[in-house]
Amino acid sequence: MRSADSKRNVIQKIKNYIAAKVTVNNSVMDDMVLLNSRRVLYIAILSMITNIVAIMLLGLENPTVGDSYEAKWHIGINASHFSMFFIMGVMGTFSFLLRKNRNIRFMATLQYIMIGILLVFGIMVVCIDQLVTANITTFLIVCTMIGAVFLLRPLYAIITYAISYVAFYIGLGFAQTDPVILLSNRVNGITAVAIGICLSLISWKTTLEHIQQRRHITAQHRELEEKTEVLEYLAFYDPMTSLCNRRRGEELIKQEISSMRRYGHESCIILIDIDHFKYFNDTYGHPFGDGVIKEITFLLKKSVRESDMVSRWGGEEFLILLTHVSITEAKDIAEKLRKIIEERIIVVNAKVINTTISIGVAQIKPDRNDALEIAYKEADRALYKAKEEGRNRVAIATEDDKTAIASVHIEWRREWESGNAEIDDQHKILLELGNALIHMGLSVVEQEKILIQLHLFINHMKKHFSYEEEVLKAANYPDTQKHAQIHEEIVEETLGFRDAYFKGEIKSTAFFSFIIDKVIIGHMLQDDVQAFPYLEKYGKHGR
């Protein structure tokens, strides 16, 4: 029983192996045929040259007149080369025409016709040569050439050479009467056929591996290109809206600034923020908020020109580059967009809502090296102004707006003194660092400089919190642990806002507003006040 199962397994493995080989061979047939079609043309040309040279050499010799073997050989060889010359001319012409049309079926037929003609020619010349010599050199050359030049499937090669040997065996029997020579030539013919088969198998296998390797490399290149395209898309476009992201948007704006410098036209940017977007997320969930963003994206793209660029600037904020427009025209376009959004009924997940947007408009001034930074700051200020004035409106930043906002400065007051000189000094430093951050955020300052200032602010804040906790503990403040927990939460929130700001997910005004409300006023001037009596007592009596 086991023996029978083992036998069936072996047979099945053989069948699977053969089926796999057949599949692989079938997969490269078209490539092999195309290669053979080119070789048919080259062989035809080479054969015609060879035939002409042979005919010329035969013409230099004077054949023996009469019915001698030499005369018959001369006539037969001449006729063979003349016939072969014209046949190869026809084959070459067909091959050239078929290569242009790339007809695989006819090309496959033509290659076997060419192989058959060459084998017939080789056998015929060998038979004629028997009149003057006993060798079979021509048949050996033809078998070798076919095996080395043409790419034949292993099974087809074996069948082709088997048929050619049968024809060689029979034809030689008519041409050679000496039994010893006949037997010798037939045995040598087997060698010629074997050489041809070996060469054919090697050529097929080598070319097959080359084609597979080439396909594998092509597939890898295609896969790499696809992955590169995906990475480029992820690097430059927002996956949710398919809009270009802030990074790509900045590149396009810089290109437009270069064009403005060259041709002298005007262009503007408008900064858009969805009003009360946090309410949608908190009330209906983030998927609903994403649906609102997608709907707004659709309306914005639909409502601007193809030459304009709509980008998702971060979170619920969009930036549109309006090319070849003045500040007045940009404001009109912004107003049109505002009305479109206001009048639109948005349906997301079976929920119907109305929403509005606030817009800040700024003109790009290409004469400045930091034209992009200036335009963005102005648009951001204008957007802040639109929000402050009640939302759902369009605003343009003016020089007065810039001066008023940039001059925001929180002064230290006497009533903020805690009674502990060291903590008061630390509070004053924290206040000045915060003022500097606010000023930098509302002025035209590079992000790298803001990052340095922010690093100083956070480090001082951590140092101050640590010192303050030690003093409160020493002063026997009952809520010291709770106060320390508040410190920890403020640090985490500050770091989170910092990361979101530099990723472009929130506006600078939102971040710096957090510093004022949460850190300076919310904690330093509210939470700390509750501990002032203990700090004052500790400041008088010491440790």
Structure characterization notes:
The protein has 543 residues and is an alpha+beta fold. The chain has 3 domains: 2-219, no CATH class; 246-406, Reverse transcriptase/Diguanylate cyclase domain (Alpha-Beta Plaits, 2-Layer Sandwich); 414-541, Up-down Bundle (Four Helix Bundle (Hemerythrin (Met), subunit A)), CATH 1.20.120. Helix content is 74%, strand content 7%. It has 18 helices and 7 strands. It has helices at 2-27, 29-60, 69-101, 104-129, 137-149, 154-175, 179-236, 246-263, 277-284, 286-303, 327-343, 371-388, 399-406, 421-442, 447-474, 480-502, 508-527, 532-541, and strands at residues 267-274, 309-314, 317-323, 346-348, 351-353, 357-363, 394-396. The strands form 2 sheets. It has a 5-stranded mixed β-sheet with strand order 2-3-1-6-7, sandwiched between helices. Strands 4-5 form a two-stranded antiparallel sheet. Strand 4 and strand 5 (351-353) form a beta hairpin. Helix 2 packs parallel to helix 4 (104-129) and helix 15 (447-474) packs antiparallel against helix 16 (480-502). The protein is elongated and about 140 Å long.
Gross morphology is elongated
**Approximate strand percentage:** 5-15%
Oligomer: single chain
Question: How many DSSP E strands?
Answer: 7
Features of the shown structure:
single chain, 543 residues, alpha+beta, Alpha-Beta Plaits, Four Helix Bundle (Hemerythrin (Met), subunit A), 3 domains, five-stranded mixed sheet, two-stranded antiparallel ribbon, 18 helices, elongated
